[in-house]
Design goal:
Derlin; mainly alpha; Rhomboid-like_sf; 3 strands; 10 helices; 240 residues
Length: 240
């Protein structure tokens, strides 16, 4: 019974969020069990181009370090904000969500080459948080019960938290930059005088991922609880 309940809960997670978070957890588990090593996963342009180790283009987004506070922190934010994007502004637009993944991953790979980053998963998480925060500007956030602010400031608060932990903020800045590029091209520029949509999901991706019907029993997570935990919980302005 417990297994069936857990299975049902797992299968209710939207497909892209489920696939990405599962891949991240399984990759970390494989490293912890010493089945593979981080040296087989990290981003290295020379090995990709000269030794044709093309899997590194994907695996560098799947490893968030050994199991610990940093891993759990990233997994929580990745799961929550990826799911809320998929159930919110990308509801019924799985192909567009996959295209955002591909677009963001491509830009990060290009930029990561110049700043010598070997793992880009955390930057990808920040990108998701940034896009969600810009699309939900009226949500009030509470971070660890210490700071109260509106959602668009969340990526910057997370960057400050990384700085306090002694981590490099280059990763956070990369995620914010890529998230802003996507948000500008998708949400801002098309609404400007003379603007237009530069980001168009290829028809082959739409054919593979978009489904004509929606599940009537599907229950999305409420966006009124964006963090789900004390450090990211919030509510929309005007609510009691």
């Amino acid at each position: 019974m417990a297994y069936q309940t857990l299975q049902q809960e797992y299968l209710q997670i939207p497909v892209v969020t489920r696939a990405y978070t599962t891949a991240c957890v399984l990759t970390t588990a494989a490293v912890q069990l010493e089945i593979i090593t981080p040296f087989q996963l990290y981003f290295n342009p020379d090995l990709i181009l000269r030794n044709y180790q093309v899997w590194r283009l994907i695996t560098n987004f799947l490893f968030f370090g050994p199991v610990g506070f940093n891993f759990l922190f990233n997994m929580i934010f990745l799961y929550r904000y990826c799911r809320m994007l998929e159930e919110g502004s990308f509801r019924g637009r799985t192909a567009d969500f996959v295209f955002m993944f591909l677009f963001g991953g491509l830009l990060m790979t290009i930029f990561g080459t110049f700043v010598s980053l070997v793992f880009l998963g955390q930057a990808f998480t920040i990108m998701l948080v940034y896009v969600w925060s810009r699309r939900n500007p009226n949500v009030r956030m509470n971070f660890f019960g210490l700071l109260n602010f509106q959602a668009p400031f969340l990526p910057w608060v997370l960057m400050g938290f990384s700085l306090l932990l002694g981590n490099s903020i280059i990763v956070d800045l990369l995620g914010i930059a890529v998230g802003h590029v996507y948000f500008f091209l998708e949400d801002v520029f098309p609404n400007q005088p003379g603007g237009g949509r530069w980001l168009k999901t290829p028809s082959i991706i739409k054919m593979l991922f978009d489904t004509p019907e929606e599940d009537a029993n599907y229950n999305p997570l409420p966006e009124e609880r964006p963090g789900g935990f004390a450090w990211g919980e919030g509510q929309r302005l005007g609510e009691n």
